[in-house]
Structure formats: structure tokens, C-alpha cells
Specification:
The protein contains four helices and seven strands. By secondary structure, it is of the alpha+beta class.
Amino acid sequence: TLNSTSLEMESLLQTLIADWRLKISEKKIELRLEVESGLPTVCGDRFRLEQVLNNLIENAIKYTDAGGSVCISAAQAGECIEVRVRDTGSGIPAADLPHIFERFYRADKARSRALGGTGLRLSIVKHIVQLHGGSVSPESAVGEGSTIVIRVPAGAKQVTLDSGDAAQFDRNSEEAVDTGKNECDPDFPKRSFPIK
């Protein structure tokens, strides 16, 4: 189940960015944080949202060369908090964009093999965000970098799972199931997505 608490997105992002700046100090990548003032809280599982953001930041850094930049921004968008992770990497071909949240899918297969990874990060991101009633979408063009946009409901509304919903995660998120509760993407159908 999700262990939901009231979270300040700015504080959460500041903590993560400070950790990542230490990790990438030798890679010569600029890491920026832009947060709209006065953001409302979100009600969510801190560990799972950290996992989402760490996966997105790690992906952005992996595909950004030295001298490039990664920018994480947060702002209110209607009834949701929108977080954007934008990089100046090589970008994603249009044909690959609809598939990047699929398990094991890699847009740049040659570079992915060289850099390592399981091809699960974005799939895990999608499932956790949907469990929080949110949505995730990509924006990218070859040669212009990529942006992954996540939206989660603002406010103190508790995130709950029905008793029949399976949402068992281990620390590596080997399995997740979407509950269909998606307040930031109301047209998203109710269906389950096992990860393992």
C-alpha cells in the first residue's frame, strides 16, 4: 500500500537536487531547480515520489553530455502540481515517444547498452504516478533534448487504494498495479499493469 503523508514538493525537490549535485560534480552538468512560490502540498508516499523523481533525474543525467544541463521545475497546473524534468540531451525520435513508458523499452538501444540500466525506470515512474492519481507524459525532439512531465493532485486529499487493489512494491518496484484513480488524467482507463 501507499504510505501517504502531506508533502511539500519544494522541500522534497531541494533535498534530492542537493544529493544529485554531489553525485554529478565531476560530470560537468548544470543541475537547476525552479519552483513556483506558494505551491500547495501534495498527499503522497514520500519514498515512492522520491523514487519517481530520482528515476527521472538519473535518466536525464545519463543522456546529457558534459556541458549540458538538467532543469527540474515545479508549478501549479489547475488542481495538480506539475513537475518537469528537462534535459539538453540528444532527444527522443517521435516514433519512440509513445513507447518509452513500456517495460524494457529503450529508444537509443546502442547508448543504453553502453550506459547500462534495465529499461524499467520510466515504466516504474508511470505506475507510481498513476497510483497517486496523476499522469506522466513526454515532450521531446531529436537534437533538442527531452522533458518528462508528471502531474499529481494538489492538496491534502488522502491517496487510497481499494482493498482489492494490488500495490505491493519492494524497494526496487518489481511490481506495481495501476488503480485507475487518475485525477490529473481523468480519461485514463482503469486497468492493471504488472511490472514483473
